Prior knowledge:
Elements lengths: L6 H17 L28 H4 L17 E5 L5 E3 L2 H6 L7 E5 L6 H13 L4 E7 L5 H6 L3 E4 L15 H20 L4 H41 L5 H17 L6 H10 L2 H7 L5 H18 L23 E4 L8 H27 L8 E5 L2 H5 L5 H9 L7 E7 L3 H4 L4 H13 L2 E4 L7 H5 L6 H10 L21 E5 L6 E5 L17 E2 L4 E2 L1
Parallel strand pairs: 3-8, 3-9, 4-6, 4-7, 5-6, 7-8
Antiparallel strand pairs: 1-2, 1-11, 9-10, 10-11, 12-13
Helix pairs in contact: 6-7, 7-8, 7-11, 7-12, 8-9, 8-10, 9-11, 14-16
Amino acid sequence: MFGSRTKHQRTQAPATKLAVAVARRPGLRGWRGRGQGEAVYVTAADEWRGTSVQVCGLWPFVGGSGTPILGVPIGVHTDTGAPFGADPISWFMHGMINNPSMFVLGLPHYGKSTLVRHIVLGLAGRSINPLILGDLKPDYVDLIEALGGQVISLGPGRGHLNVLDPGEATGAAVRLLASAEEHRATANGTTDPAAAAPFFAAAVKAEKLAEQLMADSHNRRLNMITALITIVRNAKPSAHEESLIDRALHILDDRLDRVPLIGDLIDVIKDAPNELRAIALDRGDMSRYLDATDQLRQSLYSLDGSGRFSDMFSKPTDQPMDLTKPVVFDLSGISDTQRDIQAACLLACWSTGFATVQVAHTLADAGLEPRRNYFVVMDELWRALRSGEGMVDRVDSLTRLNRTEGVGQAMITHTMSDLEALPTEAERMKARGFVERSGMVVCGALPGAEMEKLNKAVTLSRAEQSRLISWADPGSWTDVGGSRKRVRPGLGKFLFKVGGRPGIPVALKLTSVEESLHDTNKRWTINRTGEGEN
Length: 534
């Protein structure tokens, strides 16, 4: 019938439309036509040539090698999701880095302390004792308490640390000398010279270790007193004043049968013994001696309970360190407005911690104690560095021997500007050396202005710099799900750099057990319904 379609025509029509749709495909260079995006030039595929032995198992769809998972589990690679593990001690022991230390940089409240606490917890599980030598906020007290460790409070009216206390050095020296006597007695009771030789050698070694321990203890006390005077004056003591302190400490050790205090040191200088008068070049004139020592005594009076340091350093130590446990020095009672007091306490804690570790290793070398390794955390590094002239040298001397002393170390500050703000170029170079000598450098969110300064110490590619800058983005303006928390792109993300190798971007992952230990904003907690809300 005219105008009607046969059954055969009705069934074939859809197939014709499908064929037209299938036929419309882009060519090898894309869609042809104006504005369709056809490529003018197609890059040739890479070609490789090799023997049948070399390429017989070639599979072209390959990816990069996986991230290292050696050490404390940190989190996952931000791009691939691969698991990542790291800590300076594990990587050093397996030859991945040359120095068991890490330097952590990042803007505030992006997770620096959380990362370090996470590593501290992981290492504690491997029987490596953490030593938090100065916690100002506090960030680590809850963690150390959860680990069953020792919390030592220090601050005006909150505790005392006698900087003239040799600590465990005196007792350790006595043990070493007693061990030397036992070895000599054993050797003398042996008729065979060959059998006696090892005992004589052990006795000589123990005596030498005792002598070195006491000499190191003396130097530590001298350095600590001069460092505190530097903070009091904001200038280094003169050479003859250091000589006076050095000789006065020797006189104190000979006079007293107890641990000396700052007041005892002042009394020795006031007594004007001939040894001190000779150093002061008084030429027999007492008035010249008084003139030469007046400024020194004034500085010491400031440390003896009559200055802004109160009696923190002038009374016997309240709690000696117990190196069989995790230890934290809680300095949170010191106000942020008291920068010089914070710096003095940090330096005193660092000095005391490293000295006690040295005693423990000396006893282990003599076979009198088991060998232990420690992970030392030095937070808020910038506070100590800016506290006075010569403080960079003091910190530098403390941080150079971590590998030989069997100590892993983490130094933490905000930005490279903290190190670049030092007054002289020599001090700035030494401060950059802290970063350059570190086995690994861990960078969190950083502003763009930091990139040029950071590149002086560790090489970053443009992509790595862009990543660190993007992490510093403040995030959204609105709350997430009504939680009153804004999502920040860089929160908990870090770039691990080792030498000139490409950095590994990692997102930190915490376990449910840790979450309650990582709240550094407790004083901002609001309690509205009987439960704390962050």
